[in-house]
Amino acid sequence: MTANFLIGLREGLEAVLVVVLLLAYLQKTGRKQLIPRIFAGVGIAVAVSLGFGALLTFGPRGLTFEAQEAIGGSLSIVAVGFVTWMVFWMASASKTLASDLRGKVDQAAEGSAWGLIMVGAFAVGREGLETAMFLWAATRATGETWQPLVGATLGIIVAIGLGALLHRGVLKINLSKFFTWTGAALIVVAGGVLAYGVHDLQEAAILPGLHNLAFDVSHIIAPGGFLGTLLKGVFNFSPATTWLEAIVWVTYVVPVMFIFFRRIAVPKKAVTAAPVAAHAAV
Predict the structure, then answer these.
(1) What b-and-e string marks burial along 233-269, b requiring 16 or more CB atoms within 10 Å of the CB?
(2) Alpha carbons 280 and 3: distance in angstroms, whole number
(3) DSSP 3-state assignment of 137?
(4) pLDDT of 259
């Protein structure tokens, strides 16, 4: 639940920040009458994201076990690719996000009503689809049912609350630090999802080594016990891990984490200026 709360909070705050920036710009430029179009676009994005999540959840049922595992493993790997791209994109795009959105709003406001609706839909829909796919993959990895949904929902609710406070000017957040540390945490979570996706492909007999274990600490950390459930829910840790899963996890997490922090550390002036620019735009 904790990992899914983090996913919901981070992805939700990304989407909420986009909406807050759009609303602030429309109000600042005296175009409040266009605000309902933004909310219409947000509504479309939410509906499409929920539909996509339902398709992922109920679509593969009725297939053979091997087919389900093959689809699940493949989509888990795709989800990791999307969330990795999202983490790096947000680290760099936060510097120009406000100006890019203002340009799109100006173009759409001069056109038809659908133009501004699509700006809101595409701006929020990307995060929504990424969230749906990654939550689905994380849920499969933990083997839980309703807990991931509750965790993600709570995270999104908190993100909406923070967005409302930002919009009213009550709250100021150091967005640079927030996205840095949540990005690092998501890389660890994504590593677990990637390893579980590989395990699914092993069970589907697409990848070898299902019974070649790197370690098995099930006698120490019971999979159904409190510690096992906690580690599984937060880090997607499996007490019985194959060699291929372990190699994939290390090969992904170590270099991606190194590149992530190195990219953030290099442009120090831009990073420290990002929260100020975001606060001014809000």
Answers:
(1) bbbbbbbebbebbbebbeebbeebeeebeeebeeeee
(2) 31
(3) helix
(4) 92
- CA triplet 32, 126, 110: central angle to 5 degrees? 35
**Least confident stretch, 99-113, 152-166, 197-211:** 99-113
Hey, what's the torsion of the CAs at 136, 197, 217, 2, to 10 degrees? Answer: -30
Give CA torsion, residues 159, 160, 166, 171, to 10 deg.
-60
| Beta pairing partners, 241 | 215
In terms of C-beta density within 10 A (0-12 exposed, 13-18 middle, 19 or more buried), how is residue 138 classed? buried
- At 32, the amino acid letter reads K
3-state secondary structure 76-89: HHHHHHHHHHHHHH
Q: Residue 4: which residues within 8 A CB-CB, separation 6 or more?
A: 135, 138, 139, 147, 148, 149, 151, 152, 155
Q: What's the predicted TM-score (pTM) here? A: 0.70
Digit-coded pLDDT (tens) for 241-274: 999 999 999 999 999 999 999 887 765 444 444 4
According to DSSP, residue 207 is labeled S
Residue 136 and residue 59 in contact, taking contact as beta carbons nearer than 8 Å? no
pLDDT bucket at 95, cuts 50 / 70 / 90: low
Residue 282 has a pLDDT of 42
DSSP 100: H
Q: How far is CA 240 from CA 208, 218, 220, 222, 260, in A?
A: 16, 6, 11, 10, 29
The alpha carbon of 244 is separated from its chain's Cα centroid by a whole number of angstroms, namely 25
Whole-number pLDDT of residue 273: 41
Side chain identity at residue 39, one-letter code: F
Give 210's strand partners.
none
